[in-house]
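Handoff note, outgoing to incoming analyst
You'll be picking up this chain. Sequence as last confirmed:
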Amino acid sequence: MTTNVTSQPDTDRSTTSATTGRWVADGKKTGSRLRGTGRRRSIPHLLLGALLVLACAAAFLVVSLNSDNRVPVLALARPVSVGHVLTTQDLRQASVIVDPEVSVVDARRAGSVVGRTISTSLPAGALLTPDTIGGGNMPTAGQAIAALSLKAGQFPPEVSPGTHVSVVFAPGPAGGTVASPPTPDSTTSWPAVVTNVTSPPNEQTTVVSMQFTEAAARQVAAVPAGQLSIVMLSGGSR
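Most recent structure output, in case you need it:
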């Protein structure tokens, strides 16, 4: 007996394999497209980041250069009028970039400026220049400068140029020469502004120069040495 065996093609398996192959191929293509898109998107981000880094570096460089060029100078803390005697309260420090052709006053020279007069009216915030400050400590019209040689205890050690003071007549100790009040109206104190304080070497006295009215300066100068003392006042008291 003869048995005929007919082989049928495995169409289901072939179909499954073909489908699987297409799915795998499509998956590879999709993944490849995604990776390509990710790379394309990351490039602009990298460029933007690099530009930001460069911009920050440039800004830092500009700020550093400008900061290095700033110098501390003297400016006015409040308005002053011509003839005004500068005090420490009139001054403030400002850090500015100065043109080499512009003359300013270094902030470290504040001590030499206090007590000097202003040669022109200036608003608050104006920078001081050598031209706006009167030469030396020359008093203005109606004012005069007198100097006292004082010992320790006759003046506060905090006294400095620009300090508002009152010069007080203080008669000497009993048994010493005692002067009478130097004015007909028996004035025994005079308001003044300190213009300079000097301690001569190898001496136990301090010379304090002060600006008075002309009349007061003459009266103070007439008092014998050792019979005047200084009282320091608040900034606005005269």
